[in-house]
Amino acid sequence: MNLARETPCPAANGGLIERIRNRTAKELRMRELGVFSKIKRGILLGAIGASVAFASASDERFVLRYDSPANPEFKRATTKMGGRADAFGYIQTALPLGNGRLGAMFSGGVDTEHLLINDITLWMNTKRGMDEVAQSGTRIGAYKNLDTVRKAYREGKFGSGEGSMEALGTKYLSSQEPLGNYAPFADLLISTGHQQESVSDYRRSLDIRTGLGSVSYRIGKGEFTREYFCSYPNDVLVVRYTAKNATLDLTVQATTKHAAEVKAQGRRIELRGEAEMVQDNTEFMQLVQVDAGSKGEVTAQADGTIAVKGAREVTIYLAGYSDYLPDYPSFKGRDYAGDCEAAVATASKLGYDALRAAHREDVSALMERCFLELDFDSSGGTTDELVAGKGSLELENLYFNYSRYLQISCSRGAPVPSNLQGLWNADLKPAWNCDYHTDINVEMNYWMVETANLPESFSPFVEWMKVLAESGAYTARETYGVEQGWSVSLNSNVFGFTAQNEHGRRAQQSGHWLAQHLFEHYAFGRDEEYLEEVYPILKGAAEFFVGYLAPWKDGTLVVYPTWSPENDYLKELYGKLNKQAWGASYDQQLILNLFTDCIEASYVLDRDEDFRKILQKMIPQLCPQKIGQHGQLQEWPEDWDDPNNKHRHISHLIALHPGRDISPLTTKELHEAALVTMAHRGDESTGWSTGWKTNFWARLHNGDRAHKIYRFLTSQRAYPNLFDFHPPFQIDGNFGGAAGVCEMLLQSHLRSVNDEAESIEEAAFVAYQSDPEKPNHFVPVVPDESLVDAPYILHLLPALPSAWPTGKITGLRARGGFEVDIEWKDGELAEAIIRATSDGRFRVYSEGALSEPISLRKGESKVWR
């Protein structure tokens, strides 16, 4: 059913859409089912008897462990940190499993094991299947009133009253369509009949090197164990119960919070449900098979449960899928029932041992690739005891490695990226819709995939970006009257929502920030085939801003309407909702970054010379960066910054991180201004903001300050299961903190454009130069072809904390196509090994000295001491 008028695609945008759409529904399906297609071809990763040496034995440094079950209650914990596990709910205490699409959490309950099941594609309370324009969520024809809104900006109509910038933005530009929310999938309850008071020697753990969860305890002479894993090679959740000197009597029950039918037949429980949508409910299915070995008796019950009697071992295989496919604008078509059947049948045929061996090899290979080893003595305590303490090297080491495990678990082989809670959600109405916030959160989720050597985890982000670019072409035209490129605003979902937020004060463009990740992925991997694939999206983001940037009163080009994410200004005069603005520094910094990336990509791919020249001509016209009255980097073109503002967002330092254009080594004055801004904002904040500040201080080369923030994050902004404490749970802080560790130990964002230069100040490309006619103004620099072959500068131990005098990190990635192992002792570099993953050049910056350019062929390595 079409709920909006059919509108033909404009010719210019039609080119973009066709480039993005250049894939059939079948190709989309096969890409999304890439993991599962391996099963159908009979491919199993690793022989049954194979085992990676790294994962051959348990290492307590890589294990989360507890001496009690998770709290079975579901509640949003807002308790101050430092309490015991019973102060928090299930989400804060259960342990996560995942294969990037299918997720689970296990409680380890003695009487009842509660497994929360999630599928990252399952959303509700929104629309799909509309016509191509309407599916974007855009307000059709809004562009006709864009100048009316802009006039209010030019006239300084502050506040939120009638005729204000906010009010007119809401009236004319904001979407009226529902965004929806990420939905829970199902639950699996396994009752044992055991009583907590009868149990001794209880242990619950998660080995992050192997992705294996476990529970063990005793009742009298009986020994009971459980093991859990979520297999990427075989796309199933597997649970095994065993008993020694005892038998198992279990009841297995499948439930969901959605409308559903559940039936048990033979050894299987089939749950078919529908997640309620405003248009076109999403169908899904969960299939569970229970095998009780030769000793156990399995009986399907009339109430939809399965009873197991007298078993010594019980294996449970679970598969679950929705009907979602990333096919704009229908977003449906998966044979979810057939895929459930095939996954469970294949898993049960292979058997537990083969599935477990393949899973261990898969996870351990990724975890072995990069890991942190700080020098500490194990406390012997449980993980919740570590968190309840005041911080430790042991906890900091575990947190980094655990964050890599979370990344593997919630972003791999799926058609959509990790969301605000990664993959794990139990609520029909989760906080902030558990959506894709594009003003920091979804971006932060992907900072560490490059530096911490998990590039496979980036593919869901790329697939989602293809959908956004297709949808965003309609938003660009209908909301802003821009006939080329694509636009996306503050919030998005899995159904291509790219329209403006419902509140005019939250007017935002996000294409420049999202596209930053696309080129970063190329910078680290140097894969020109990948760059060819994403170039239309990168170019489309730039095309939009070419059409959307507008001259301000001083003649410079600015973005407006906009805001500096979530922050206010002139609050005493106009109230705390006074947020709408023009030319916000974060926009202008990101546009320079985007235009520079697009220029370099066009040189690399040898195309679009005319468009490249347009970008090079526009860059000097962009609004400059400014240093304000307090010595701070201004957040807005006007000097509105309040030194007492402790806001969690520090968006005007994006050029410091995750950007590359402010550095203590190349932009001294902007560096000093960034220090003032950081002093104003303070150290303590929400979980994700704490993670970002760790990165900021690392980029400012203050290792002790970065470590102070990181310690606060790990000890005061982590729940007992180490999920990030926003509050409530948001996973971005986990990933931001891990990215900060990488930045403390290795940085590679600067480029050497002068091979003959002996100092980094002379060698490095500088993106901002002081305006000789306007003090404290810094104008953007136009890049040229020299960037294409400019080697990246590998800065070793740029912000090593004194609290980490001795340690080692293996497998960091550097831009230019390199992997780096670094070992240090007594606060100084002992050795670095640099390996080339592609042919390339680099320079090393260490202890204040810059090396000559060094060339390596793919597979070669260089030892640096």
Write down the overall geometry.
Answer: globular
Total beta strands: 37
- What kind of sheet is the major sheet? 9 strands, antiparallel
Amount of helix: 25-40%
Distance between the termini: 67 Å
Strand content: 15-25%
Side by side, the strands of the main sheet go 1-8-9-10-11-18-15-14-13
Average pLDDT across residues?
92
Our count of helices gives 23
Low-confidence stretches: 1-12, 19-56, 77-86
**Computed CA radius of gyration, to the nearest angstrom:** 27 Å
What structural category characterises the helix and strand content? alpha+beta
Identify the notable features of this structure and list them briefly.
seven-stranded antiparallel sheet, 23 helices, nine-stranded antiparallel sheet, 865 residues, alpha+beta
Your description of this structure?
This protein is α+β, with helices and mostly antiparallel strands and 865 residues long. The chain has a nine-stranded antiparallel beta sheet. A seven-stranded antiparallel beta sheet has the order 2-3-4-7-12-17-16. The chain has a five-stranded antiparallel beta sheet with strand order 19-31-32-33-37. The longest helix is centred in the middle third of the chain and has 22 residues, at 459-480. The N and C termini lie far apart (67 Å).
